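Two proteins were folded this term; both appear here.
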Amino acid sequence: VNMKQLQSSVSARYGLVDDTQTYLEKFIHFRVTFPEVKNHERDGKLQRYVHHLCDDFSISESNRDWEDVIKPLLTHFFAESNWNMRLLQRIVGHLNLIIHAHNQRLSRCRALVVTLCCLKATNEKIYEKARAGRLSFPEAEKALHLDREFPNNNSYYNRLFSFYFDESASDEIKNEFRSMGLNGDGPSIVPWVANNFIDTLSTGLD
C-alpha cells in the first residue's frame, strides 16, 4: 500500500488535513517495508512463476520451444504493465488451448501468438485493431512497451515486433525474419493469426 496516496485519499474524502496518519492507525496496526527488488531479481522471480504455470498446464513437458518464448514475453509484459497473477494464469491457460489445438501450424509465429493472447486479455481496443490489421507500430510500441528492454537485453523481440507491426520496417529486418520462414508481409500475418487461431477457442478471456 502506498501510504502517501492513502493519506491523500482520506484527506480528500473526509476533509482531514493534519491528522490522516492518526486516523489510519485505527485500521492499520502494523507496517512492513519490503526491500526494493532489482529488475534482474524481479525478472528472475517472474520467469520462475511463469515456468510454474507452464508446468501446471503441461506446456513444459512436450512444448519446450513454446515455454522458451512464453517466459521472456510474459515476464516483460507483466513487469511493465503491473498485471496480477490471476491474469497471467488465464493467459497461460488460453495459450495452452491454442498450443494443443494448433501447435504445428503456429510453430513459426509463437511470439505473435503469445502477444495477441496478452492483448486480448488486457487491451481489447488494441487487440481489435490488431485483428483488423489496423494496429500501427506506434500503438503497438506503446501497448507492448517496446521502448523498454526485454529480459537479458534481448533485442530480438524489438526487431520481431517491428517486422509484424511496422509497415516501413527496414529490408534488413524483413529479410531476417523471412529467412526464418515468416513469409509475406509481417502486418498481414497479424490479423491472420488473430482471426484463425486466437479467436477460434472459447477461453474465458472475452
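Next, the second protein.
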Amino acid sequence: ISSNQVNVDTLTSGDAVLLADARLDVINYELTITFPTSSSSNKAGLVFAHNGSNSYYSVVLNRSTGKLALYKVTSGSWGSALQESAATINDSTAYTISVTQRQRTVDVALSGQSSALSYGSSTDFGMGKSGMYSDKTGVKFDNFKAIDALSTPPAVPRIGGSADVSLSSGKLLVNGATRGGEAVVEKFTGGNYLVQVYVDQNGGTTADVWIRYQDPNNGYKVEFYDSEIWLKKVVKGQWTTIRAYAGGGASAQTVQVRGSYSYPNYRITVYVGGTQQFYEEDNTFTTGGVALRRCSII
C-alpha cells in the first residue's frame, strides 16, 4: 500500500487476487483502477462471489479487447466474457467502476462513459468474498467499497433501496444507469392498493413502476418504453411479458397502477391520465411493496 492505494507488486501464476470478507448477495461495489504504462494487453477489476477455491466472477477493464466485461472464472480458468461493452481505457488514467449484485442480476457502470452492463443469471451468484484482480504489476486500486444495498439510507422519508437516488427540481431522480437497483417505498406492503405517480422518463428510454415488489428479483413491473407500456413478471431474476401495449405512453405522464382481488384471481390494472389502458390477472405474487426504477418521479 502506497499513498493510500493498493499497488500490485508481484503476480502468482500470472495474476493477483486480493480479497476482502464482504459476503452479501445484494450489495453495491465501487472500485477505482489505474493502469501503468505498457499495459495494453492486460486486465484489472473487481472480484465478487469468490468461493475460496479460485472460482469467482470478475468485472474487469480488458485492455486487450478495449471493453468493460463480466467473466465467470472456474478454478482459475477464464472463459469467454458473459457480457461486455466497448470502453475507452488508457494508461495512467483512473477509472471507477460501479457494480450492483442482486442475487441473480448484476448491473455495471463505468464512470464518465456510456459503457454499461446488465446481466441476468439463471442461478444466484452467491455470497463469496470480494476484492480486486490484476494480471499486470503496477496496477493501482483505490476507493474500494462494498455496501449492503438493502440498508442504503433513504433519500427522502420512506424512500430507500439500492438505487442511486437524489432530489432534483422537486422530483425524485432514480438514476438506474449509475449502479442499477430500485427506489423502494420502505415499510409498505399489501395486496390491494393503488399507486399514483407522475413519471418523467427524463431523456431515458424506460421507466419502471413495480407493484407487489418482493425483492430486486421478484415482483411485477409496469415498464414504460418510449410510447409503449409493458406489464412484466419477474421471478428469480427472470422476466416474462404478461402484456405488451403499443399505445398510451408518453415521456411524461400521470400513471396509476392498481393491485386488486377479483375472485378467484389477483388483478393488476394500469391507468394513464385517468384512463384505463388494460388489466391482467396473475396469481404468482398476491402481496408486496412498491418500487421505482430508472426514472424521475414527483
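Helices lie at 176-179. The mean pLDDT is 82. These notes refer to the second protein only.
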